[in-house]
Design a protein that fits this description.
174 residues, mainly beta, six-stranded parallel sheet, 14 strands, 0% helix, 22% strand
């Protein structure tokens, strides 16, 4: 799908694995409000041919983000993941500075798997007050300076901020 620029999925309630992988010219995706899960590699390596633009997509109703769903895809500076509860391994991992991602708002997020935001070099803020589980290297090589953990936290894995040169504070909100 080299020339595909816009996709209207407003009536689609399920999308299969790797459905739009390597759609290198993709600029805009309209998702159904009933779509609750983006499966493994759904938008893997999209936007490669789009200069200085990010993928225009509304993710507010998605509850689960699959493995590598946006791997190496340019995303906007702020993601509103209002309904997100589970983000799988390498879901938003960046490759070669392709993301513009600076802030993630995920008020219902409970689980963040390994390397979920690894290499998102511009990511400075994550708001996730219900986070219970954070797996290996979830924020490796990001720009997060401070991280506030909610009292709901049950598991914190290792190397969360590996390669992060600016990280300076980790605290639990009581």
């Amino acid at each position: 799908c080299i020339y595909l620029k816009n996709i209207d999925l407003s009536k689609v309630t399920e999308i299969g694995k790797s459905a739009f992988g390597f759609c290198v010219s993709l600029e805009k995706v309209v998702l159904s409000k009933d779509l609750k899960e983006l499966k493994e590699m759904t938008f893997y390596n999209c936007t490669l041919a789009v200069e200085d633009k990010h993928l225009d997509i509304n993710l507010e109703n998605v509850e689960r983000f699959g493995l590598g769903v946006f791997y190496a895809t340019k995303l906007p500076a702020k993601l509103e993941l209002t309904s997100a509860e589970y983000i799988e391994e390498r879901a938003f991992i960046e490759e070669n500075g392709k993301h513009y991602l600076e802030e993630v708002v995920a008020p219902n997020l409970k689980t963040l798997e390994a390397q979920a935001f690894a290499n998102c070099i511009n990511l400075k803020k994550l708001y996730a007050p219900k986070l219970e589980t954070i797996e290996y290297a979830a924020f490796a090589s990001t720009a997060i300076e401070e991280f506030e953990i909610s009292p709901a936290i049950k598991k914190i894995s290792y190397d969360l901020f590996d390669g992060n040169q600016v990280f300076r504070a980790f605290y639990v909100k009581l």
